[in-house]
Amino acid sequence: MIWETIRLALTTITRNALRSFLTVLGVVIGVAAVIAMVTVGQGSSEQVSADVGSLGTDLLILRPGARMLGPGTRDSAPAFKLSDVDALRDLSVLSAVAPVVSTSQTAVFGSSNRTTTVTGTTSDYLTIGNWDIERGRGFSNIEDRSGANVCIIGETVRTALFGSTDPTGETIRIKSISCEVIGYLIAKGAGTFGQDQDDIVMMPIKTVQRRLEGNQDVASISMQLAPGISTARAIFEIDTLMQERRRIELGEENDFSVSDMKEIASMLNSVNAVLTGLLSSVAAVSLLVGGIGIMNIMLVSVTERTREIGIRLSVGAQAHQVLAQFLIEAVVLSLIGGVIGILIGLGLALLAARIMAIPFVPSGWVIVLAFGFSALVGVIFGYFPARRAAQLDPIEALRHQ
Amino acid sequence: MCAQPIIELHGITRSYGAGEALVKALDGVDLTISTGEFVAIMGPSGSGKSTAMNIIGCLDRPTAGQYRFNRVEVAALDQDQRALLRRHYLGFVFQGFNLLPRTTALENVELPLIYKGLPKSERGARAREALRRVGLEGREDHTPSQLSGGQQQRVAIARALAGEPMVMLADEPTGNLDTARSNEIMQLLQRLNREEGLTIVMVTHEEDMARYASRLVVFTDGRILRDAPVAAEGAA
C-alpha cells in the first residue's frame, strides 16, 4: 500500500511537472544554499590548515598589546623599537627576526599607479615569510641599516605598473620618495584571508619609518624558530626578554603577545566557522520559505482534487489513507527538491572551490542532514493540507465541481 | 435465489440545522431491500431521495432511527469502519461519472481494488474482466476525456463491479446522458441484476428509467409515498 501510494505521488508529481518544479524550487534553493555554504566553509578551513602548514609551524609573531584574537592592537601599548629586534636576534632559540611596519601607499610609475601595502622590513623577512625573488636581489645589509631608497615589488604591483616589462632598475615614486626597484617576487597567490599577498612593496624598515611614517615604531616582529626548538620554549624566552625590556613587574599583565601559526590557524578556523554558520542559517531560512511554498501548493492541490478525494472515499478509502496519500506526496516532492538541491549545492561548491582555489570537501553528514531536513519540511508542511483532505466530507467532496 | 433483507431502514430521520431553521430531509422512513432486488427511488427534488441514498451508502449518518446493512447496525460503526463497509460491500455509480481525470479506464476500475489491497497482477485481471462485463474491451487505456458519456458511465459501472459488491448504488446514473445512451446503461444494469443477481438501488427522476427496475419507491417530503413492484415486464 505504501509503495502504491509513493507510485501514485510520483505519477501526480510528474503529471504536473512544471508546477511541481516551481513548488520545490524553494526547497531546492534552500538545500543548495546550505550545502554550498557548508562545503565551501569546510574547504576554506582545510585551506587554512594547508596554508599554515606551508608557512611552517616555525613562524612566531610578536605584537604589542595583550593577547587577543584578530589583527590590530586593543590598547595603547607602546610599539616596539629596532633595539627590541636586535635584542631578539641575540636569542639562540630564534634563527631569524624581522621587524614589520605596514602602511597603505600609492606607488606611481610613469602614468600608472597602484595603491598597495608598503611593508618596511629587513631581508630576513623574505626568509621567514618563504618569499622567493623571481628576478633581481634582496636588500643588502647596508641598505637595511642605512634605509636606502630601494624596494622589492610583488607580482600584482609589477603587473599594474610595468605590465610585462622588466621593472628592475626602474624608479617608482611612493609619496615623496623615489625608490629603485631592485627585484620582484615570485607570485604567492591569495592568502589565508583571501587577500592578495602579491599586492606588496617591500622597503627597508628605516626608509619607511623615516620617510613615510615619521617615527621609530616597529608594529610587529616576525620570528623564525631555530631548528629543534619547541614553540613553548621560544615563547617563554621571548616573554622573559620582553618583560624585562618593557619593565613589566611580576604578576602584571604583559603588554605584548606572541602568537604562533597554530593559534592563528585556530583563530581563522573559528572565524570561518562563525561565518559558515551564519550563512548556513540564512540559507536555512530559505528552506523554511520553501516549506511554506510546498504547503501552499498542497493546499491548492487538495482544493483542486476535492472530487478525487470524494471518489477515493466513496470506493472505501479511509481517512488515514487519504492523509497518507497527501502527506507522502508532500514528502516525495520535498525529497525530490532535496536531491536536486544537494546536486546543485555540490555543483556550486565545486565551482566556488575552483574559483577560490580551495579544496572541494563534500561531507556526508551535511548531505544526510539536508536530505533528512527536506523530508522533515515535507512532513511538517504537508501535514496540514493532508489533514484537511482527510477530513473532507465525502458527500460534499463528490458534489464539488 | 433465496432473498433475504440486506438493507433495513427503520424510522430513519435526517435533519439539518436546529430550532426554527430545522429541516427534516427524511422523516421516519422505513424501507427494507432484499438481495436480488432492483429498486428505483423516485421523487421530486428535495423529497429526500438523495439523502436516503447517501445514508444507504454510508456516506451520511441518520439523525435518528436504525439502519442495518447485512444485519450490522451501521450507526454503531465509526468513520473507518463505514469506509471498510463501502470498500467491501458497496459499489457507487454517480450522475457525473466521477472518474479520475487523466487516468486510464483500467486504472479507474482498479482504484477500489487498490484499497482492497489486491496485488497488481490480480487487480489488472479483475479490472479487465469488469470492463469486459460492461462491454468496453479494448478501451482499457483510454482516459475519460477520450470516451463518450455513455462509455464513461460504463467505466464507472465497471469500477463499481470490480470490487464485487453486495449492493450497487446508482445516483441518477443516466442524468447526464441522452435517451439512447440512457437506455443502453439501463439495459446493462438490468442485465447485471437479472443475470448476475446483483442488488441495485437507483435514484432517478425519469419514469422511463425507473421502468427497468423491479420495484419503485416514491419519496415526497422526506417520507415514502408509494412502494410497489414495477408492473411492466420487470416482475419475475
What does this structure look like?
The complex is a heterodimer of chains A (401) and B (236). Chain A has 401 residues and is α+β, with helices and mostly antiparallel strands. Chain A folds into 2 domains: 2-51 and 266-399, no CATH class; 78-254, no CATH class. Chain A has helices at residues 2-15, 17-55, 82-89, 124-128, 141-146, 155-162, 205-213, 231-245, 261-304, 306-314, 319-356, 364-390, 394-399; strands spanning 59-64, 94-109, 112-121, 133-136, 150-153, 171-174, 177-185, 200-204, 220-225, 256-260. In chain A, strand 2 and strand 3 form a beta hairpin. Chain A is elongated. The relative contact order of chain A is 0.19. The model of chain B has no long low-confidence stretch (mean pLDDT 92). In chain B, the strands form 2 sheets. Chain B has a 6-stranded mixed beta sheet with strand order 6-7-8-3-9-10. Chain B has a 4-stranded antiparallel beta sheet with strand order 2-1-4-5, covered by helices on one side. In chain B, helix 6 links the parallel strand 7 (167-171) and strand 8. Chain B has one domain: 3-Layer(aba) Sandwich (Rossmann fold). Chain B has helices spanning 49-56, 79-89, 105-116, 120-133, 149-162, 179-196, 207-210, and strands at 5-16, 23-34, 38-42, 64-69, 72-73, 90-93, 167-171, 199-203, 215-220, 223-229. At the A-B interface, helix 10, helix 11 and helix 13 of A face helix 2 and helix 3 of B.
List the helices and strands and how they pair.
The complex is a heterodimer of chains A (401) and B (236).
Chain A: H1 2-15, H2 17-55, E1 59-64, H3 82-89, E2 94-109, E3 112-121, H4 124-128, E4 133-136, H5 141-146, E5 150-153, H6 155-162, E6 171-174, E7 177-185, E8 200-204, H7 205-213, E9 220-225, H8 231-245, E10 256-260, H9 261-304, H10 306-314, H11 319-356, H12 364-390, H13 394-399
Parallel strand pairs in A: 3-8, 5-7
Antiparallel strand pairs in A: 1-9, 1-10, 2-3, 2-6, 2-9, 4-7, 5-8, 6-7
Helix pairs in contact in A: 1-11, 2-9, 2-11, 2-12, 9-11, 9-12, 11-12
Chain B: E1 5-16, E2 23-34, E3 38-42, H1 49-56, E4 64-69, E5 72-73, H2 79-89, E6 90-93, H3 105-116, H4 120-133, H5 149-162, E7 167-171, H6 179-196, E8 199-203, H7 207-210, E9 215-220, E10 223-229
Parallel strand pairs in B: 3-8, 3-9, 6-7, 7-8
Antiparallel strand pairs in B: 1-2, 1-4, 4-5, 9-10
Helix pairs in contact in B: 3-4, 3-5, 4-5, 5-6
